[in-house]
Please model this.
Amino acid sequence: MALWGGRFTQEADVRFKQFNDSLVFDYRMAKQDLEGSKGWAKAICSVGIITKEENEKLQTALNELLAEVEHDPHSIANAGFEDIHSYVESRLIDKVGELGKKLHTGRSRNDQVATDLKLWCRAQAAVLLDSIRGLQKSLLKTAEQFKDTVIPGYTHLQRAQPVTFGHWALAYVEMLDRDYIRLKNATDLMNRCPLGAAALAGTAYPVDREKLARDLDFSEATRNSLDSVSDRDHVLELLNCASISMVHLSRFAEDLIIYNSGEAGFVELSDRVTSGSSLMPQKKNPDALELIRGKSGRVIGALMGMLVTVKALPLAYNKDLQEDKEGLFDALDTWHDCLDMAGLVLEDIKVNADATLDAAKGGYSNATELADYLVTKGIPFREAHHIVGEIVVFAIKEQKPLEMLTLEQFKQICPKIESDVYPCLEIDALLSKRCAKGGVAPGQISSAIEFMKQHLAC
Ligand code: ARG
Model:
């Protein structure tokens, strides 16, 4: 039965009902709808709309429903009601009869849905905060395992300067740390309770909304009823958090896809996260990573969709707002799964240290060192840069890395070069020189790992 109908003489068209109903997806807020209802029953009891005994009866029935829905929330989805609010109210009436019909006094589905969704967002954010920490811990383990494994570092996808696989992993720990803080900030901002705003103008009963807010574990009540029922900033913020984090995960996936390519051969992915080709027997494809990269698109799409949905919506509630849920649910599920899958990929990744070292040594990635060496011989950096450019051209012609040129060859281009140039061109020297905070020097990597261990308390 619908929650309305008095002013209607015709049944809703079946196709309209299907189009309008939201239970198929908003059943996911069953727990929150019941929690909110418990809070509201208490609030209307305190202003004398229902008696203490009636409140107790409602609380018991709502608790029973809570236990039922927790057991199998999905079973509600196809129960045929308009939305989760109609479902809960009807089940309540089944349980307590006429008394169930009093619960909606002074409340509207507009403040109810706003409250339910905020409660849901908060619960889901807590789960996601844990998932982010989980992936950070996996990355940290990878960083420790491969802290000295040299790989080429790139700019413009050209080999630039050597780094280590551990340093690479720590870069993603940092990105995820910002994702964590961003999500935490977003949850702090959604901490005001809209219940009691009613349809749009505020409830007509002198409910203590601050107390109601605290009962539902919010820090305070919202301050304006029109804003309360039309605000979906928390949805946008979570979608924004998800999108930025998915961009990070997508870059992580892309790096590993490149490292895993036949051309690079830097890493080998486990059979557990790859799949084969139905035609080409030799293939082992990085599907888990490609899906992470691909799914970033649909999460960003959900953010764009919701921004466009709320843009130019007049105050206060409009049914357009019902479109806030499917994209959000899907985006947060996707984000959650991708965080999990990224951790699984790292679990038994193999790094081919010989291949990465060879690649790091190639591509003249020690050219900057040579320029820095010339600076120690009194040549201004700009000039040194130019000289090294000439030396690189010569070395390319000779098909030799810089460290294989003879001293005579060096001296032909720059007489100031002495035999002490060779140690400077060694890979270890290259790494250990980057010893300022955040650099790739072994000491810096170790202290970054120590810092993160403490930070993540693992
Ligand atoms: N299913 C609706 C939603 O998700 C609930 C609120 C409906 N309110 C109304 N006045 N029709 O937004």
Observations:
- The chain has a mean pLDDT of 96.
